[in-house]
């Protein structure tokens, strides 16, 4: 679930920042891009979600190493 939330928030931040919006024929001076979402806040949330994913992955790996399998 954390990975899905991270992907969604990252995608929203990328879209709001205009990433992937190449191909306009107008000059940059002709257009003023105003993000519809708070990009900085979304990036901060994305970083926090990525940290949580890493922590859960680390916990799972540690548990895998600590638990012995039954034969």
Please tell me about this protein's structure.
InterPro entries: DIP1984-like. Residues 1-21 are annotated as: Disordered. This protein has helices at 2-17, 39-66. The chain is mainly α and 71 residues long. It contains 2 helices and no strands. The protein is rod-shaped and about 70 Å long. It has a domain at 1-17 and 39-65. The two termini are 32 Å apart. Helices cover 62% and strands 0% of the residues. Helix 1 runs antiparallel to helix 2.
β-sheet strand percentage: under 5%
Q: Indicate the structural class.
A: mainly alpha
Shape: rod-shaped
Helix and strand pattern = HH
* N-to-C span: 32 Å
Give the oligomeric state of the chains in this entry, treating copies of one chain as homo and distinct chains as hetero.
Answer: single chain
Estimate percent helicity.
55-70%
Radius of gyration: 19 Å
Low-pLDDT stretches are: none
Sheet of most strands: none
Overall pLDDT: 86
The number of helical runs is 2
What keyword list fits this structure?
single chain, 71 residues, mainly alpha, 2 helices, 0% strand
């Amino acid at each position: 679930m954390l990975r899905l939330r991270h992907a969604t928030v990252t995608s929203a931040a990328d879209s709001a920042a205009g990433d992937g919006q190449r191909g306009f024929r107008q000059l940059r001076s002709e257009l003023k891009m105003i993000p519809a979402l708070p990009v900085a806040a979304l990036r901060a949330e994305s970083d926090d979600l990525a940290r949580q994913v890493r922590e859960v992955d680390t916990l799972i790996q540690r548990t895998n190493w600590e638990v012995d399998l039954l034969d």
